[in-house]
Amino acid sequence: MASEDDIADALMRRAARLAADKRVAALDAAELRGITCRAIALARCIILDYHGQQRLLEVHIVGETTVGALAISGYQIGTDAKSTGWRRLRFDDIAAIALGDRQSLAPRPGYNRDDPGFAVVYCRVEDD
After folding, report:
1. Of 16, 113, 128, which Cα lies nearest the Cα of 59?
2. Is 40 helix (H, G, I), strand (E, B) or coil?
3. Which residues are CB-neighbours of 41 under 8 A, at least 6 positions away?
4. Which of 117, 116, 112 is nearest to 125 (CA)?
5. How do residues 101-125 score in pLDDT, each as one tens digit?
6. How far is residue 24's CA from residue 22's CA, in Å, rounded to a whole number?
7. Which H/E stretch holds residue 3?
8. pLDDT per position as a tens digit, 62-111
9. What pTM did the predictor assign?
10. DSSP of 67-99, one letter per residue?
11. Is the CA virtual torsion 104, 110, 113, 119 positive or negative?
12. Per-domain residue ranges of the chain
């Protein structure tokens, strides 16, 4: 099984290829939904390239926002307090994604399973 560093390197290579080839379509929404919902089901983190930066995220909610955008609500695990915390990431801004090896600690404090920012929920972490 590939390490998180190997996965991260592969993600960055894929993101660079996507940026270099404007003809490549964005990641398929069904693929993103499948990976993110699987992460919730397996209680695992995802590794993704978002706005050109690698992120490690514990997915909590996958759905459509009140403005109709497909998105993830999750807890980002960073290297410092500034980069750690709650994030809502739009599917159309994700350049690459993979299921990581790291166990998710969801639900994190502050989790709202009924987040009013989501009109439709495909999957979510259930409260303990």
Report:
1. 113
2. helix
3. 123
4. 112
5. 999 999 999 999 999 999 999 999 9
6. 5
7. none
8. 999 999 999 999 999 987 777 899 999 999 999 889 999 999 999 999 99
9. 0.80
10. TS-EEEEEEEE-SSTTT-EEEEEEGGGEEEEEE
11. negative
12. 4-124
